[in-house]
Each structure stands twice: as structure tokens, then as C-alpha cells.
Amino acid sequence: MSDYSFFEGVEKNFERAAAHTNLPDGLLEQLKGCNSVFRMKFPVRINGDVEVFEAYRVQHSNHRMPTKGGIRYSDGVNQDEVMALASIVYEESKQKTEQPRVAGVYINRLKIGMPLQADPTLKFAAYKLPKYKNTVIRRVLNVHKEIDSPYNTYKHLGLPPGPISIPEIQTIDAVLNYESHEYFFMCAKPEYTGYHNFSKTLHQHNVYSKEYHKWIDQQNIR
Q: pTM for this structure?
């Protein structure tokens, strides 16, 4: 499929869809205009199974291009890596105010060759296995860390081979403009507030981790 035929198809279908909206013409023109289109791989859960589809994704702002922003910590970073990291950040925290800090933790680890050890990647790897079909993992256990999968970021250095979810635009922005800090660890706060405690040292992280696991034990979360 050529770029010309693709863009032609986008414009044709956009006009058909726009006819069913009440949006002003000026806004529709802004929505239709885009800076770039990327061919991406998207994981989709269907009846308990995870399927990976290839599709096109449109970006409406140069600000979200992977060649700009804090993500450019190396010349080798590309759009797929941005999307993979954004998908992990999105699954780790839905709190938009802390997503740049979460992204910063992973960036710090990537810079020094430290495993990401991202629990959401373990869940993604597990759900691809038959034994976890139609199940919900409420608590990541050591057995999950032993799963043989390229998405297991406890076993494999660097980013996984693709995204584990479809991140929101705000999360992509959080990765492109990650918070610069000295944190290498994070642990969910007790009571499922959706926020995390961040640590610069393993010692402090273990303190937070002990508090969190004590709380989930009390909630009988297995």
C-alpha cells in the first residue's frame, strides 16, 4: 500500500465519518490534518487471548515525535521503543500527574543497563499462556517472574519487543517529556490509591515494599 493511497483512503473515510458529527468545519480540518503516520503493532485481548495486529497510527503534533523530547537519551531510540515504554508506563500508573516520574524511573534503568522489572510486562506474558486464559492476576508472584517470554523484563534487559497495551496520548507525552530525577525504584502505595512511592536506593524501596505487601496480605489478595 503506497502512502498516497493510504492518505487518500484516510481522507475519504474521514469525510464519511465527519458527516455524522456536529463538529464545526474548522475543528474537523484540524483533526484531519496530521504530521505523520506510523505503522504500529497493537496487542488486543479477544476472548481471553492476546492477538497482535498491525495498523496505522496518526500523530497530530510534532511534539509527540520520538525525535524530540527527553526520550532522546540515545540516537537509537525509535517510535516502536517510545510506544513500548509508554504502554508499560500506562499499565503501571493511570495517574497522569505521576506518569512522567514513572517514565523517568524506567529511563534511568535503561541508561545504566538495569532490568526494567516492570510487573505489567509479566502479566502480559502470563496472559499469553493457556493456563492463564480467562483469569485475572491480582498479585504478581515469583512464579510469574520465571515465565519464559521476551516480554519478561525481569529476565530480559531493555524494552520488550512491542507494546503491551495501547497507551493514551498523554502517556506518550509523559515518556517524551519524562521527569529527570535520580529514582530507580517505585512501589505502589497501600490502599490502591493508584500512586507510587519512589526511591533512590534499594534499602528505601524495600521499606516501601514491605509496607505494601503487608497491606495486600491484610486484604487477602492472592
A: 0.69
